[in-house]
Fold:
Amino acid sequence: MARAYFSSVGSAVPSLKPPSFSASPPSFRHLSSSSSQPFLSASRTDNNPTSTASTMSSDLPPPPHPSLEVIGGAKDSFLPVFKTTLLHRPYKPYPFFAWNRHVETIFAAFFRSLPEVKFRRECLRTSDGGSVALDWVSGDHTRLPHDSPLLILLPGLTGGSQDTYVRHMVVRARSKGWRVVVFNSRGCGDSPVTTPQFYSASFLGDMSEVVAHVSSRYLKANIYAVGWSLGANILVRYLGQESHACVLSGAVSLCNPFNLVIADEDFRKGFNIVYDKALSNALCKIFKKHALLFEDLGGEYNIPVAANARSVREFDECLTRVSFGFKSVDDYYSNSCSSDSIKNVCTPLLCIQAANDPIAPSRGIPREDIKANSNCLLIVTPKGGHLGWVAGEGAPFGAPWTDPVLMDFLEHLEQGRSKGSSSGNEVAGKKEGSETEGLHFVEV
Structure:
């Protein structure tokens, strides 16, 4: 969730002001790479077998700290790639702000710093007449080589390029020489709405077209994706749908609700009602900007109620589930769970969750399917809230704890991959780096 989620809550959310203290970030040592051992004579080896055993064990990376839950079919192959020592230290949330999951969630939404990034916006018209906004870092189309790895970012529900967690990821990836584009879904991040249809957890058409578009523009680049919250749910469902045919070289899912039925149950309990109200207000605000597109829609649509929905569930019942052909809102939720897609994922996937996430419940994580899939790794931190993770070198106002972890994962995948010449043949005749006819660009 981003600060936009709470903009309409007002007095419902307690006022929090950041204390004025400076926290010096802890030093982070890098794991020493394995080096070849000096030659051991036969007599030495025979006389002291434990010496050889200890030498071999010293080459292995230390196990993850017990404060973290780390599981997955790809655990043995992926764990050694992390250069950061964060996984081998106890997860230590920043004092005061992380004592409560709601405090951490709200603090991160309101007070996390917003890095300044200049974007170049591209409006992509989809095959059904809809539009999405792709925000590229301004100037990268001339500064970076065409074969630079390309990272697509998918924000959470109602989120976009303006969100702090998105901006921090943009800055980190750019510092590593990656090309980054933020995928603002229909109506989000001031993306235009040109048809009477928004986006949803079930709809993968826009994701497929965005991946195809950026892949055709940079033929020599490996494509990766990172998704947060609902964006993570869409990303994992896309990976499962594409399965062996997926063109992405790797992906990261953060704060994924996974099971939307379970998430919906928890979303209507206790303090979570505050998030529900904030999100429904944000959805209604987007809807009212484009209300004329929805005039005179018949059938099961209930436009007046959707325009003033008091909960996300009510908005989805009156508009979303009807737009995408579901019989009921429960039918929509049960058929849009990314937990059902994990078993079909054939792309390297890192999932990071917080055990105390109020919006993406831990019990909804498909742990058994993740364990059975040799392409998946799951890391669960004991705290973090929803899109909080106020811990690590950036705490309390900087980048979340997850950023260096996921960047290590992506860089390892990039170092081990090279784009085959066959990729270019699939889109022969298209000029790399050219701008597709009918697209519009603006600096924002």
Notes: The longest helix spans residues 272-289.
